[in-house]
Design a protein that fits this description.
Elements lengths: L1 H4 L3 H8 L12 H8 L4 E4 L8 H6 L5 E4 L9 H7 L2 E3 L6 H16 L2 H9 L17 E5 L3 H14 L2 E5 L5 H6 L2 E3 L2 H7 L2 E4 L13 H6 L5 E4 L8 H9 L5 E4 L19 E3 L8 H19 L11 H6 L1
Helix pairs in contact: 2-13, 6-8
């Protein structure tokens, strides 16, 4: 736990003034559930809480679950809401790191950087089909334009003079305009965009929101990027689209099953750049995430409204 504790020592000291804090190592899920029974606030370490409905029944004092991630699909949100337990993520804390990683993937794919690197390291020089695609002045399509998608959009507008289209049924046009984006239907985004980047949470509505039908709508020169959650994309359909050259290429950081299987067809394709779910992995994001987690838990313990509450119905019920 040293790498977690070090950046937040002062914050932990403040939290200990108002609450008993246990950050000792947890060897397994059983032990985590045992400790959580009497907790007022529990920090989710990525354990799939959605698979353990009995945990909520036994945790009679629980008022809040705080996850050190943007995604919260490992938590049974409906059951937490029914019991009056707030679920909080870390909102925009990781947004800049993910947005930068997204653009790293876009530029890598568009200019064949990783492909050229592999050829050079193998002793070669030129790569087959070496011509890349310039993104300047093209159209960026976003599936989701929250904190991360918004930052991706701003970089597209300011650095590459791109037109930005966004599909997001949960925001108003005025919010999209703050990022220089225009709201559009999903079909319009897929058909008109030269670069398509996914930034939506994983929910029942978004699972496989991008599949064979959606890939068939994209331009043959399109670049597809996913740094959100693996299951929002039908991985078999993605592999097929890449293999048949229905799209130019893809940059993928998240997968339907993680770690990615050794025999996954994605590992064998040349027109894809894959990274192991590391888009949020920067020193700054790591430090700010845990500071945000501890400070948010303190807000809850002190009776203040926490930040980044996902199930806001619980807040409404309290007032």
């Amino acid at each position: 736990m040293a790498e977690v504790v070090e950046p937040v020592k002062k914050d932990l000291e403040e939290l200990r003034k108002v609450a008993e804090v246990d950050i000792s190592p947890i060897p397994n899920e059983k032990e985590w559930f045992k400790r959580g029974r009497d907790a007022y606030v529990s920090m989710s370490p990525g354990i799939p809480i959605a698979r353990y409905p009995d945990f909520l029944k036994e945790a009679t004092e629980l008022k809040m679950i705080q996850t050190a991630s943007i995604g919260y699909n490992h938590i049974d949100l409906a059951s937490c809401t029914a019991k009056g337990v707030m679920v909080c993520n870390v909102g925009e804390v990781m947004a800049e790191s993910v947005a930068q990683h997204t653009w790293g993937l876009i530029l890598d794919v568009s200019k064949n950087i990783s492909r050229a690197d592999r050829v050079m390291r193998g002793g070669g020089w030129r790569i087959d089909n070496r011509f890349g695609i310039e993104v300047y002045g093209k159209t960026l399509g976003l599936v989701g334009i929250g904190d991360i998608g918004g930052r991706v959009a701003l970089k597209a507008r300011m650095a590459f003079g791109m037109r930005v289209l966004a599909y997001d049924p949960y925001i108003l046009p005025a919010r999209a305009q703050l990022y220089g984006a225009e709201l559009a239907s999903l079909n319009t985004v897929l058909k008109e965009a030269d670069v398509i980047s996914v930034h939506t949470p994983l929910t029942p509505e978004t699972q496989h929101i991008i599949g064979a039908k959606q890939f068939s709508m994209m331009k043959p020169t399109a670049i597809f990027v996913n740094t959100s959650r693996g299951p929002v994309v039908d991985e078999a359909a993605l592999a097929s689209a890449l293999e048949s050259k229905k799209i130019f290429g893809a940059g993928i950081d998240v997968f339907e099953t993680e770690p990615l299987a050794a025999n996954s067809p994605l590992r064998k394709l040349e027109n894809i750049v894959i990274t192991p779910h590391t888009s949020s992995s920067s020193r700054e994001a790591f430090r700010n995430t845990y500071k945000g987690v501890v400070q948010n838990i303190q807000r809850a313990v002190e009776g203040k409204r926490p930040n980044w509450v996902i199930n806001r119905e619980v807040l409404a019920a309290k007032h």
